[in-house]
Amino acid sequence: MLISRVIAPRTSRVEESPTPEPGAGQILIEVLASGVCTSDFGPWMRGPEGGSPIELGHETAGRVVATGSTTSRWAVGDLVTGLGGPGFATHTLLDENAALPLPAGLAPSHAIGEPIATLEEAISRTPIGAGSRVAVVGLGFMGLGLVQLAKARAPHTIIGVDPNPAARRRALEWGADVALHPDEVPGFTASSSDAGATDPRADVVLEATGVTPGLDTASPLVRPFGTLCIVGYHHAGTAKLDMELWYKGATVVNGFCPDRPRVMHAMQDALDLVASHRFSYSPLVTHTMGLDGVDGAYALMEARDPSFVKAVVVP
């Protein structure tokens, strides 16, 4: 098989490697699509720290080519998506209980389960319902996905916030009612102090930036007794929260989920939305690369190219 490995900072190389054999409880898939995730951006930038190349990619979809047991619930030829990797390869192993069927009739690159599972699991722990006011801060892949997932819950209003005008346009096209630059947030929320004015702040704010300035923007958008869900990938250091949230009686939800069964349950719910066309990858997958294009995908992510939302590697 072929696999892309990070051999130095910002440098990957496609190499030949023995195709693994599935053990008990495993399936071997031919990878048909693997999403490029921001959580792997740091390892790509830093490169190997101990000398061994790094194998990335965990948002996989593919075709089963072998099973580790004759009693497996999967059969050769089944199309699946799930949790596992390395996905930047022609073949990879998955735990058979961490895989689900791909929705029929959709390209694998438009039905990858892992990224939307994490979003669905996070949003499922927020009180969004019919009539809610929802704000999404950060309109990259995660934020635009959250806009769609929030829209499926029939809120009254969705407010999108991002400094990128292209991202704000996409949010309006795919479900947001209002799109703001972060600098516009103070003026937008100011009327909450006006007597008799309708409070424009949100019942639920979904932060999807992964950086402290995003939290600074999100906090004022939370109404008293509202909810802030931190979905962004705050993977290192400390992230400060505005203590005004405490004085507002707000609830803060950690949008990360370390529990695989919960993520798999959320993945099934999210794939049902994909199958029923209430969630679409079409506006989100903006770039498709081969195995030799992994570095280019991360470079687009690093440059914050206005045309970029998400890249998918198709071996």
For the structure shown, list the relevant keywords.
single chain; 315 residues; alpha/beta; Quinone Oxidoreductase, Chain A, domain 1; Rossmann fold; 2 domains; six-stranded parallel beta sheet; 25% helix; globular
State the gist of this model.
The chain is of the alpha/beta class. The protein has two domains: 2-113 and 260-313, Medium-chain alcohol dehydrogenases, catalytic domain (Quinone Oxidoreductase, Chain A, domain 1, Alpha-Beta Complex), CATH 3.90.180; 126-254, Rossmann fold. The protein has helices spanning 41-46, 113-123, 141-151, 165-173, 185-190, 212-218, 244-247, 260-275, 294-303; strands at residues 2-8, 11-16, 26-35, 54-55, 59-67, 79-83, 91-95, 99-101, 133-137, 157-161, 178-180, 202-207, 222-230, 251-254, 285-289, 310-313.
Describe the protein in words:
By secondary structure, this protein is α/β, with parallel strands linked by helices. It folds into two domains: 2-113 and 260-313, Medium-chain alcohol dehydrogenases, catalytic domain (Quinone Oxidoreductase, Chain A, domain 1, Alpha-Beta Complex), CATH 3.90.180.10; 126-254, 3-Layer(aba) Sandwich (Rossmann fold), CATH 3.40.50. It is 25% helix and 28% strand. It has helices at residues 41-46, 113-123, 141-151, 165-173, 185-190, 212-218, 244-247, 260-275, 294-303, and strands at residues 2-8, 11-16, 26-35, 54-55, 59-67, 79-83, 91-95, 99-101, 133-137, 157-161, 178-180, 202-207, 222-230, 251-254, 285-289, 310-313. Helix 9 (294-303) links the parallel strand 15 (285-289) and strand 16. The longest helix is centred in the last third of the chain and has 16 residues, at 260-275. It starts with a strand and ends with a strand. The relative contact order is 0.16. The model has no long low-confidence stretch (mean pLDDT 94).
